[in-house]
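# step 3/5: fold
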Amino acid sequence: MAFTLQPWRVFLTALAGWINRHQQAAIDFLREENRVLLEQLGDRRIRLTDDQRRRLAVAGKAVGRKALLDLAGIVTPDTILAWHRKLVAAKWDQRSRRGPGRPGRPGVMKEIERLAVRFATENPSWGYRRIEGALANLGHHVARTTVANLLRRNGIDPAPERGSRTSWRTFLGAQWSTIAAIDFTTVEVWGRHGLVTMYVLFAIELRGRRVHFAGMTPGPDDAWIRQVGRNLTDPLDGFLTNKQFCLMDRDAKFTTAFRTLLTGAGIEPVRLPPRSPNLNAWIERFMRSIKSECLDRMIFFGEDSLRRAVREYLAHYHAERNHQGLSNAIIAPVPRPTRTTGRVRCRERLGGMLRYYHREAA
């Protein structure tokens, strides 16, 4: 029997073939467009939002892993399917949570825990009862055992053990106005016979951030550092006068004779642990500033040029530069009118490398 196709079947077959070719052309175009966009991005990573991940995960699950191997260009199929699994897990996690009426004792308020930890941290000698009373003053009535559990959860010891140790921050806060720090930096200077390494010594008082240029030399030997120590501790105009502590690292240039000289002047040299620049962060921050704003941007020919640059920078640092650590204030500002009108003047130092803007006096 001869096999004949009915006209409507022929039409449907042709229509299906046309639709398939049209869809394939659209897919090929989208693939090529995806490749072009990826070439534009290069090595940069695409950062997707949670909503975009959700949409890709839902669509990727319907396509299937094998088809995604041919289609996916932004992310791998495994990534898309992992997003999908997270969505499923999040869905069941929400359903498994018990409502507000679930049995059991409710947890302590986060505010009470935050205050208890704060009181214990800021007051090492306060015991559980004292903290309990301080919470009651603020309207939070909790038991002593609750306070003990909160502090234990946050790794805070009871008062006897906690009060017997003085943290570095507490020590600095109590002695703030009597602490100074000292440190070296090095600068390469061109001399007659080539580059010479100059050792530049600075001292800083922690409370007001005032900096003193203690001296510089190509050979910081014991005699030189002892003379620097005598200058710093001079009873009339020494920078370390009225200071009780001087922070320093374990650099061999801070010799035993130098430290003995400080001790004789009533200043205790505090030698920091090895490789701990964060414990001397104030002078380290100054070193970063003077290098990035001045020293690293200049070439020095002779010791005098370096000395002049350092002094110009310190004048700018004290009287013209705003300091974020001092609430954006100037250490030693020159009295000027606070008018908002008038001509703006610019003071330049080191050929315009350092600038300070102020209004012209009336």
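# step 4/5: annotate
Strands lie at 179-191, 194-205, 211-217, 245-248, 268-271, 300-301, 322-323, 329-330, 344-349, 354-359.
# step 5/5: archive (pending)
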